[in-house]
Amino acid sequence: MPSYQLAQDLRLPTNALDYTILAIYFLVVLGVGFAARRSIKTSLDFFLSGRSLPAWVTGLAFIAANLGALEILGMAANGAQYGVYTVHWYWVGAIPAMVFLGLVMMPFYYGSRVRSVPEFLLHRFGPSSHLLSGILFSAASVLIAGVNLYALAIVLEALLGWPQWVSIVVSGLFVLLYITLGGLSSAIYNEVVQFFVILAGLIPLTVLALVRVGGWSGLSDSLTASQGDNFVSAWGGTGIGSDNPLGANWLTIVLGLGFALSFGYWTTNFAEVQRALSAKNLSAAQRTPLIAAFPKIFIPAIVVIPGLVALVVAPDIGPGSGLEYNEAVPLLMRDLLPNGVLGIAVTGLLAAFMAGMAANVSAFNTVFTNDIWRPYLVKDRPDSYYVATARVVTAVGVLLGMGTAFIAATFSNIMNYLQTLFSFFNVPLFTVFIIGMFWKRMTAAAGFWGLLAGTVSAMVNYFWFYRGGLIDIPTDQGANFVSAIVAFVTGTLVVVVLTPLTRPKPVERLAGLVYGTRAPGVAEPPAAGDEAWYRRPALLGWGAIVLAALCYLPFSF
User: Fold this and answer.
1) Are 334 and 10 in contact (CB under 8 A)?
2) Residue 246 above 60 pLDDT?
3) C-alpha angle 302/306/312, rounded to 5°?
4) So where are the chain's domains?
5) Cα 62 to Cα 367: distance, rounded to the nearest angstrom
6) Can you tell me where the transmembrane regions are (predicted)?
7) Taking burial as the number of CB atoms within 10 A of a residue's CB, which of 124, 227, 285, 366 is the most buried?
8) What secondary structure does DSSP assign to 197-226, as a single string?
9) Are 90 and 548 in contact (CB under 8 A)?
């Protein structure tokens, strides 16, 4: 069924109160953009907020930047399609990697004073890896921005009945306006506001959804009856050779999702790392992903549960039924929320999608300007020239995102699409990064060819072996886990083989770039006893990991 007809079926019963709430929110967003514009004097201000923000602001922005289409529509769609297995994307597929980023990798990022992940590769491996990673990351940012635009278009279709292309264009232009006005500061402060608006919209939806199906016990009983016991279990049926709705066993879940995809995304995705780099000091930068880890642990309660309820309310949801998995949340909003609360929920969704779009577009303008345009195309211009260039690049990124939104529209579950992109772009980058960070002997040539080989191998596995039917994997997500493992293993093998055959960088030029070394002039982080307990990164990190592990207990038996 065409998307515009589907939107008519999902039209939300909004009234003047709901539209008033929406209007107030949009005025606040634009006001923040205009206010942030006054502080933009240099490129550092535009790209990294002058490295002046406190940890609690960057921490909330860190989680809000991720709490976009990836979370709301994507994880609800995952819940409807794969069941409780979706919690793996949080407790094993996010928390350990976020802790690793804060405790191990942020000292390298922040201490080297880089403005992007590719810039770090420039210092470690040289211009070839730098340019390749800049191009790959720019492409990934635009593709992921398109996912957020498409998700936003779904909500606008349901809200106003607009055709999909109109919704995409209007949404993109609004995001373009507030990012161009205030740069990263505008995006970050709006993300803090958006985080609380998102919670205000999703918590009532989740509560009413559970009431609709008789609470968690009623939901669990209904899903067990229709989908089987494994659908409401995190680990049931994941033995090697067993069948389960996710189409993956425990080994591919742990290695593919929990290691390759998770660490690849959280440690190298500059849309996230950029928030930590804008913190006022190293301690605040380290605490940014650790502070974000605690709300991340509980996000499944408000995004996965609505997807599970949608499957009970609309058992035929999925391809060919006229209702896609992506539309689980708009379906519940239409059926469950009263006016006023509906306005808050719609505002929360729009806020989430704009946060995700803004995160990727602001990362795109930073990487393209600083890692492609400035070093290789137009060199040695005044700082003001590059700020102006970044504003133009922002517009280009939004326009390209409008185009890639129509690619996302071809997927019934946008999470499947996103994980495919992560296996192509993030995992190979993480492979090269993590080996080079711990192995001084690794060479620039090994870094370049390892990155390229990992990317190509993931694409070959997905498009030729999986899509071509040469290997039998039950689901797209199972295929993504395998692609991630293939990318990591291939990249590692290329690095290990090439490194002894090529010349390494002199050890004295690796200060601050390899574990165990520190860049000249960079202060040591505060000792554990020199800060209050809630400011100690190690304590925060291990606390998050223990709490995430405990969350598995109710779903493991």
Assistant:
1) yes
2) yes
3) 155
4) 14-201+243-419
5) 18
6) 16-36, 56-77, 89-110, 131-156, 162-181, 193-213, 248-268, 289-314, 341-364, 385-411, 417-439, 446-466, 478-501, 538-555
7) 366
8) HHHHHHHHHHHHHHHHTTHHHHHHHHHHHH
9) yes
